[in-house]
Amino acid sequence: MVLRFNKTFVSDGEWLLPANVPPLSVWADVDRIEVVTSNPPAIHVFRDGETSGGSQPIAIDGAVREAARGREGWYVLWESPRTGALTVRFPGEGESRVAPSYGGLTVDDRERVWLTEIRSPFSIYDLTDDDEASAVMQPETRTLESLLAESGAKDASNWASVPVVVVEGGFIQTLADLASDRRIFIVYGPDGQPLSATPLGVPLGFVDSTKSPPRIYGARRTNILEIVEYAYGWYDEDLRIGGMPDAY
């Protein structure tokens, strides 16, 4: 499935979303698509190719920054217009306040919530229910400084992180140079320790994965924006992502 940015959703065919439902995040099942919008904050449900469906308002006093679907429902990262504070809203109305520097929201298949710091030092935090966020992963400082220097960057001020992607046996984080196609891919083991950091001059960011079969999906911009699919596997504690990708 692919959400094209002309508001066409592809899932065994094409679904045209109405213009008044600009998608922030999309989740698809066999017979329905759920779309989260930021303003107004709501969850829209479309079934069997219909272009109209039920809508459920999200009970927040602000705008949705990001949303991720877990088995239990939608997790929403929202921002208060008065204070700028960011809060994660859990299914079942539970909330946990997080610092404004967090920006990337990921929910894995065990319903653990991961928050990725968009700016340096690009830390990744584990947030569960009402617990406070605790940093569990961060790029190795010397390795990152060396790779940035090799790319010609004086520091990480012009770099940003994509939300971490959970893969079987570990994690992968994409750092992107906002002024070029340069990327750094950081692989972490299951204990959160950084295992490798690989630079690449391709406008690609990994955004999602499946464990069975082991696939990782990325957004790649060439002359158009594509969703690409790669197989992956572990070899001697090294995550290898190989083969020609399938592009959509």
Please give a quick description of this structure.
With 248 residues, the chain is mainly β.
Walk me through what this model shows.
With 248 residues, this protein is mainly beta. It has two domains: 1-100, no CATH class; 137-248, no CATH class. The protein is 4% helix and 54% strand. The chain contains one helix and 24 strands. The strands form six sheets. Strands 16, 17, 18, 19 and 20 form a five-stranded antiparallel beta sheet that branches. A hairpin with a 5-residue loop joins β10 (86-89) and β11 (95-98).
- What would you call the structural class? mainly beta
**Order of helix and strand elements from N to C terminus:** EEEEEEEEEEEEEEEHEEEEEEEEE
* Beta-strand fraction estimate: over 45%
The description of the largest β-sheet is: 5 strands, antiparallel
Measured as a percent range, the helix fraction is under 10%
- Radius of gyration, Cα only, in angstroms? 18 Å
Number of strands: 24
Features:
mainly beta; 4% helix; 248 residues; 2 domains; disordered C terminus
Please describe the topology of this protein:
Elements: E1 2-4, E2 8-10, E3 14-16, E4 25-28, E5 32-37, E6 42-47, E7 55-57, E8 63-70, E9 73-79, E10 86-89, E11 95-98, E12 102-107, E13 113-117, E14 124-127, E15 134-137, H1 141-150, E16 159-161, E17 165-167, E18 170-177, E19 183-188, E20 194-200, E21 204-211, E22 214-221, E23 225-235, E24 238-247
Antiparallel strand pairs: 1-2, 2-3, 4-5, 5-6, 6-7, 8-9, 9-10, 10-11, 12-13, 13-14, 14-15, 16-18, 17-18, 18-19, 19-20, 21-22, 22-23, 23-24
